[in-house]
Write a sequence for this structure.
């Protein structure tokens, strides 16, 4: 039996047993074994990892473990200067999401902020993984097993349980607060909304809505009509709170009594 020494940093410690958090620990293994195999055996999906150092040198997931290796494992750091290091999960360009079946409300919230978020309430894990890989979408999930699938290269394990807290967590994790463009996507089907003349939808409006509101948008996919009704101000408060909490770097609790 051979032995390697591991140390996980920052948010990755959330995924480890208490006795392994914030410290180095030994891992016995039988060759052949890869760094990825060991990391996921500890309960950390490879999608959570952005940088691996093996004996102080950048390493890939496929790096073969050797007796006496010292392995340091890092998550994504928003403010870390990449320099010459070989990062594994650093996202490039515009981000697109696919969410598992337990995150429907989070999908609607992300769409509210203007982020392309694919969601299906009854999709199997295999299809979600395939969509993530084929469409280069970041897979958001509460299921570690789903994120450990080798086909998934971009993903994140959502820690929080409540949708508003999950939203702050994801915005903070991917540094999205400066990219928010609210109310441009349908909350139900993710399609871009189109402005529509009031006279074209007058027959679909209740008398009070017809009298009080004059600016409308329509989803070309599901035909839903949107306007700045009473729900709009609450959504604005959610967006403002999300931005403020993300700037502070933690998923603060959203108080329904004030927002």
């Amino acid at each position: 039996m051979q032995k390697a020494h591991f140390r996980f940093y920052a948010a990755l410690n959330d995924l480890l047993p208490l006795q392994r958090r914030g410290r180095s620990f030994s891992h016995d293994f039988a060759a052949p074994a890869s760094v990825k195999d060991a990391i996921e055996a500890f309960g950390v999906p490879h999608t959570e990892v952005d940088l691996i150092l093996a004996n102080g040198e950048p390493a890939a997931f496929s790096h073969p473990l050797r007796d006496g290796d010292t392995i340091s494992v890092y998550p994504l750091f928003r403010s870390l200067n990449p320099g010459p290091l070989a990062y594994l999960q650093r996202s490039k360009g515009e981000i697109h999401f696919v969410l598992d079946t337990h995150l429907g409300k989070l999908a609607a919230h992300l769409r509210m902020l203007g982020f392309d978020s694919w969601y299906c309430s009854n999709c199997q894990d295999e299809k979600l993984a395939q969509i993530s890989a084929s469409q280069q979408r970041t897979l958001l999930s509460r299921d570690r097993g789903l994120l450990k699938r080798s086909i998934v290269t971009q993903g994140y394990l959502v820690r929080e349980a409540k949708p508003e807290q999950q939203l702050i967590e994801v915005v903070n994790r991917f540094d999205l607060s400066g990219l928010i463009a609210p109310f441009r996507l349908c909350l139900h089907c993710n399609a871009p909304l189109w402005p529509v003349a009031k006279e074209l939808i007058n027959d679909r409006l209740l008398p009070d809505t017809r009298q009080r509101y004059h600016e409308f948008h329509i989803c070309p996919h599901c035909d839903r009509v949107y306007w700045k009704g009473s729900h709009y101000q609450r959504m604005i408060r959610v967006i403002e709170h999300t931005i403020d909490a993300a700037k502070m770097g933690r998923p603060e609790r959203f108080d329904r009594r004030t927002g």
Observations:
- The mean pLDDT is 90.
